[in-house]
Amino acid sequence: MTTQEAKTIFRGHVAQMKALRHAMGILSYDGATTAPVESAEGRGRTLAYLSGCSYEIQTDPALEEAARYLSQHPEELSELERREIQLFRRGSEYTASIPRDEFVGYTTLLNKADAVWHKAKLDSDFASFAPLIREIFDANVRFAKYYKPDQAPYDTQLSRYEQGLTMARTDAFFGALKERIVPLLKRVMARPQVDDSFLWGKVYPTEVQRKFTDYLLELITVDRRRCGVGETEHPFTTFFNKKDVRVTTHYHEENPVYSMYSVIHEGGHALYELHSGDELEGTLLSGGASMSIHESQSRFMENYIGRSRAFIELIFPKMQELFPEQLAGVTAEQMYLAVNKAQPSLIRTEADELTYALHVLVRYEIEKGLFDGSIAVEELPGVWNAKYREYLGIDVPDDRRGVLQDSHWSNGNVGYFPSYALGSAYGAQLLAKMKQSVDVEGAIRSGDLRPITGWLEEHIWKYGKRYDPLELLEKALGEPFDPRYFTDYLEEKFTKIYGLD
Amino acid sequence: MTTQEAKTIFRGHVAQMKALRHAMGILSYDGATTAPVESAEGRGRTLAYLSGCSYEIQTDPALEEAARYLSQHPEELSELERREIQLFRRGSEYTASIPRDEFVGYTTLLNKADAVWHKAKLDSDFASFAPLIREIFDANVRFAKYYKPDQAPYDTQLSRYEQGLTMARTDAFFGALKERIVPLLKRVMARPQVDDSFLWGKVYPTEVQRKFTDYLLELITVDRRRCGVGETEHPFTTFFNKKDVRVTTHYHEENPVYSMYSVIHEGGHALYELHSGDELEGTLLSGGASMSIHESQSRFMENYIGRSRAFIELIFPKMQELFPEQLAGVTAEQMYLAVNKAQPSLIRTEADELTYALHVLVRYEIEKGLFDGSIAVEELPGVWNAKYREYLGIDVPDDRRGVLQDSHWSNGNVGYFPSYALGSAYGAQLLAKMKQSVDVEGAIRSGDLRPITGWLEEHIWKYGKRYDPLELLEKALGEPFDPRYFTDYLEEKFTKIYGLD
Fold first, then answer.
1. If we measure between CA atoms, which residue out of B272, B274, B280, B293 comes closest to residue B84?
2. By the 8 A CB rule, do A214 and A264 touch?
3. Between A23, A46, A225, which is nearest B37 by CB?
4. Looking at domain A197-339+421-478, does it have CATH number 3.40.50.920?
5. Residues A142-153: pLDDT tens digits?
6. What is the pLDDT of residues A47-83, one digit of tens each?
7. Can A266 be counted among the known catalytic residues?
8. Scanning every residue of chain A, which has its alpha carbon at the shortest distance from the alpha carbon of B21?
9. Radius of gyration over alpha carbons of chain A, in Å?
10. What is the mean pLDDT of chain B?
11. Are residues A493 and A184 in contact, defined by beta-carbon separation less than 8 angstroms?
């Protein structure tokens, strides 16, 4: 085999995998947005076929051989090619370490788990879902051991979502958060609550909210020629290439703030994908570096920009123009306080900026315990509820609003949760760094956010997956990651909002 | 090879082809409905890859061998299997008769032609599109000769869209139409025109029209759990299986009638696909028998039901409820006349029930002339305009609204146009037959259309592709096809509307 032959095989297979992923992504997007309900069965068949094709291509011995050849001849590769081969081999070594039977069996297990979880959540029936959690966690422990026999399985698992992440690092991270956020939340709760009652009791028509979505996306510089907007039960972002990204939202007619922050959050994800370097298109290096870096960008837009006073003052005239009767007599300051109301709640996806990380902490501790055997599956509801009482000070009334609320475990996304909290913390430190060279507040007040998005493109977006997440982050920051930026930010912000001084 | 082995190979390949077609169909549907504009390039790449996969499967020698084996052992097959093998071989023999190079070259040609046509239409620049029309028609003539060397190429081409259709049959059909419709139209045009001015000059908000769509689809018994609704520039229907069909419409805020008839028309297509026999699912026999039978169903709903006086009287209260200010003071009778206004026009897709077939006739005569060499490509605009003057009595101001208006030729759909007119005529005869056992008007007046849809399901829909189109039709009719039912219908209807007696 020559280098050129190996490169041709590699590029050809990558192109095929990307085409299949694109087709599967569109099928799923369509399923979540506009497909009729009974279409699920047929879609399932087609997705199964395409994922089989993808598995064949990914595990084609010719591809393995080409990748091995190329990794043994690094001097004949560009820097980008070396990185691409490295990432490919990381993924394929994990897959290849799992016996084919177990791999296929796991896919079947997840298909089943998804259906069981949906029903279990609806019925608040943990017992029916418990055996599947056990099987899923058992499989993940086993797979982690196949791949890295000498490493703690949960470390292996964390590192699959965030290269280099370990329990030690995550423990330290959450330790730093818990230490500051739990007492801060107690002080906040001792003060009179922010009044957001003016937001309720009116109707904000979906049609008008759609116009608000268009306004917000344009404001944060999302190029609509490359970004579609759909409507789904749960908002998400999906991406096929840098000219084709989709965000979704959910309109609640009783309150426009839900969709507003979904749009800004998903818009942040979209911006990241849309500004991946041109030279990375069609390679394995295009798109976001990891889930936590992705969340650092979406939460950056949502919280550090979208929940700032300057941003609310900027957009409030537009809100009043769109909802003149609903927001009559309301001030921008009232709106600023309302969108920053902090209070312990049951549901992670509805949590505010201050309490969000505590929801994630609960899940992290539980996953760790399930991996090392210190928590048994049947104890989960009790453990969950005790942690919500401890960290958030509230009682969980049922498992539907407790341990059964998230889809992650039924989808096999074990070790994924910490990314959410890390992303928030990364974002706070990026904001501090950005402020050294950009007048962030000034840019927001001017309505031209390009100094902000330009900085993010220059330091994060354009690099795609060229660097491992922590390396990319520290390159952008010019110093090591430090969660104190995040806790300082929270303390300063909520001290002012709740008059804690 | 055993029969069982051959069947397994055949079924497996059919399932794969269906999965690929499903994925390609969803990509195209997404592209036409909600995809951002710049997504086209990436979608093109993925579609090209998937269509390559599909070609490989379709031309896999193992499949050919299995199909040949099965066709040689008809006694071991069920009736449905025999029919399926017959249809498969018909398609694969055509493809296989074309040298691979030419087949691939033709795909590339069509890709190019589509882009050139879009621009040519925009600029009303026939000269830039002419060389591509020539190449496309040349290729189709050549392919037809490869496949059936002893048959007139245009007969071969007609029969690809409508098995058994010939120029002789089509000439006779259009002759019968022309003879009655042209003089009828002249008499109509000599009378005072119907007044539909009340429909114009107001705004019919898209939001409200969407509710009207829901109402109409429910009324004609479309099961929305299996049928999605999208919005596109040009309305169409697409189908993936009998639990997943999509119709689209286009809302013109200045007039609700455009979308209303798009919805009823596409709803007719949807009903046909949704009621294909259960035993045909997953086989090559599911879905509509041919384009003309499909059009007979969509036009049945649109014209014979949707433009009837009973139907307008049924839905008019709902229209006034949805558009109370816009339709204040209007009567159902005024609406009935307005939706049946006949007048020569330039654009086929906007033509009324009376003139529609004449638009199709122009295209049929031109295709025939291009195939037999009696019309040269460069003469097309002149020929087109002369025929519009002769049959419709109007002057074509530019090629954009003339010979460049349709996408069919640039897409390679040569020989396809007659289906539209045949469909209308089939529908009229089906209506006459249906009336022998169903109180059609009574069913409409009652608001319960199931006696009508039940009859269509029983005589057309459930059979899928089990019979060739004409055979299916004549089975349903109990007599040969006769276009006089259509011309009689038109004469009776427009005589009354325009007071011709």
1. B280
2. no
3. A225
4. no
5. 999 999 999 999
6. 989 988 998 898 899 999 999 999 999 999 999 999 9
7. yes
8. A46
9. 23
10. 95
11. no
